[in-house]
Amino acid sequence: MDKIKESVEFLTKRYSFNQKIGIVLGSGLKIFGQPLLFSIDYGEIPNMPLATVPGHSGRLDVVRIEGYEVIVMRGRYHLYEGYSPKEVVFPIEILRHLGVDILVLTNASGGINETYNSGDIMLIKDHINLTGENPLIGGPNFIDMKNAYSYKLREQLKEIGKDIGINLREGVYVGVKGPTYETPAEIKFFRTIGGDAVGMSTVLEVIRARSLGMEVIGISCITNVHKDDLSPVTHEEVLKVGNEISRNLECLLREWIKRGISI
Asked: Is the pTM here over 0.70, yes or no?
């Protein structure tokens, strides 16, 4: 049996999935914990790889948010863990087959733009894929990526941010393979080519999502800003600031879902 089909059949025997919105959470981001309608560890789902990175609990939850049911994937896979591009996007394929057509991809990222501050939330308007990988190799091919991060949904979120007092940045996300943090020379290069934030996820997921016809929102939570000094960057810092950003992120997405303008 096809791996995706097997995983989806396993899940649909345990819960009646009819959700249109799916959210993938990045490192240290903790939102929408309750009310919980369904929950299962990745390890119980056939064919699902295990999430190995601290800050990724590895669980699929269904939660009720402002009257809507939403699937929340608490954890993702990364190339630097040794997973293939197709394994990295496996959760995206599951979400699509469960009926999700609006995908919210969140991540913890480092700020490249020197006007950014730790704790900022950046809407991704475009990306630069420097991972050297693509999940579509072997087909399908030639997917249009001009509006990969939905302009319509970004405008909705910007309006909501203004209404509730959350200052949203908007910029270009540079996707790299990792697992090392970037050198000063790399950061300077990323700025030169137009990057505003850098991280080790998201780009492969949005490519696969667009090939599946999903509308995508990308949100980077800026957990540190790369300065021209020797200040170290640690994963512990990323998790700490990600947890602090979670409150504003939840308020933003809750209000967006509440208004029903994207459903």
From this structure: yes
